[in-house]
């Protein structure tokens, strides 16, 4: 007998856990995403990531006896969510993050809090945004603008790639609206699995068309980044996000989970990666003279 997924039942503890997953995991993911984008062909690597995540969630759905969407309308919603939320949002982001630091990408992505609240005001499931919430979003948005302006907007600021990240966040807000407004009949976990899997196939196909297969290398850091992103950022993160879309308003999700907090977490993650690289470099530097002494 089919068992409903954990995404259907609302509890305070599960809501807090979902927010924590988005806050921490997606904050770290900016740094990991940059590692993947620099080590591997970005679109093909992103495709592998989302296909793995979609496959894992599909396996969980099958184990719980949940059925796939059976209406054409449901598959249309899956397709639109895949194009907006994976191909455009993640595709633009992973291309841009090759050229700008991950902390900059995280800060710009914080603007999605504004887009989520604004887009969420329209549609069948529209939610009102209070003046207090708008004030909080405005403060966060101004803070992001100030942090970015401190780096300057000259030729070296790579404004084009910054705007690409901004476009990616807007696509993500549109994908969020599609998921909320789609009155699909399948379980939310199944819907998430399907659009991640389809999105992975589409973005991976874009990579193949752009010649990513010829540039593919078996890079341990890149492959490790794919595994982390597939399991934590995509499987756990997207499932948590879908759960919040079912039980919370877009404005609340944006204010708590996608404002400047993840950018701060990303800063900590970048410092950790830098420290690891510094330690490894130091170890290699010290090991080289010892190796020469052994040879002599």
Supply the key terms.
12 helices, disordered C terminus, mainly alpha, 296 residues
Set down the secondary structure blueprint:
Elements: H1 12-39, H2 42-63, H3 72-96, H4 102-109, H5 112-119, H6 131-149, H7 159-181, H8 188-209, H9 212-215, H10 220-247, H11 250-257, H12 260-295
Concise summary:
With 296 residues, the chain is mainly alpha-helical. Helix content is 78%, strand content 0%. α1 (12-39) packs antiparallel against α10 (220-247) and α3 packs across α8.
Describe the structure in your own words.
The structure is a single chain. The chain is an all-alpha fold and 296 residues long. It has one domain (12-268). It contains twelve helices and no strands. Helix 1 (12-39) packs across helix 4, helix 2 (42-63) packs antiparallel against helix 8 and helix 3 (72-96) packs antiparallel against helix 7. The chain is globular. The termini are far apart. The model is unreliable at 263-269 and 275-296 (pLDDT under 50).
Strand runs, count = 0
How many structural units, i.e. domains?
Answer: 1
The residue-averaged pLDDT reads 81
Structural class: mainly alpha
Largest pleated sheet? none
Note the beta-strand portion.
under 5%
- State the low-pLDDT regions, or none: 263-269, 275-296
């Amino acid at each position: 007998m089919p068992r409903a997924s954990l995404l259907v039942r609302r509890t305070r503890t599960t809501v807090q856990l979902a927010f924590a997953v988005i806050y921490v995991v997606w904050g770290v993911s900016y740094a990991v995403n940059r590692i993947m984008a620099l080590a591997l062909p970005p679109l093909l690597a992103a495709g592998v990531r989302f296909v793995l995540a979609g496959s894992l969630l599909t396996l969980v759905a099958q184990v719980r006896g949940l059925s796939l969407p059976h209406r054409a309308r449901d598959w249309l919603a899956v397709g639109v969510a895949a194009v907006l939320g994976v191909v455009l949002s993640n595709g633009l982001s992973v291309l841009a993050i090759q050229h700008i630091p991950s902390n900059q990408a995280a800060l710009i992505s914080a603007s999605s809090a504004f887009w989520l609240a604004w887009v969420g005001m329209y549609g069948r499931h529209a939610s009102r945004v209070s003046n207090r919430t708008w004030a909080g979003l405005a403060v966060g948005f101004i803070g992001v603008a100030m942090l970015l302006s401190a780096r300057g907007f000259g030729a070296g600021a790579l404004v084009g790639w910054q705007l690409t990240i901004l476009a990616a966040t807007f696509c993500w807000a549109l994908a969020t609206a599609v998921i909320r407004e789609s009155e699909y009949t399948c379980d939310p976990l199944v819907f998430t699995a399907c659009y991640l899997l389809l999105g992975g196939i589409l973005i991976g196909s874009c990579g193949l068309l752009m010649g990513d297969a010829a540039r593919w290398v078996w890079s341990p850091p890149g492959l490790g980044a794919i595994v982390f992103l597939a399991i934590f950022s995509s499987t756990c993160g997207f499932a948590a996000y879908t759960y919040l879309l079912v039980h919370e308003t877009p404005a609340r999700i944006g204010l708590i989970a996608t404002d400047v907090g993840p950018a701060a977490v990303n800063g900590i993650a970048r410092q950790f990666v830098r420290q690891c690289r510094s330690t490894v470099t130091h170890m290699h530097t010290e090991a080289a003279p010892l190796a020469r002494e052994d040879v002599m």
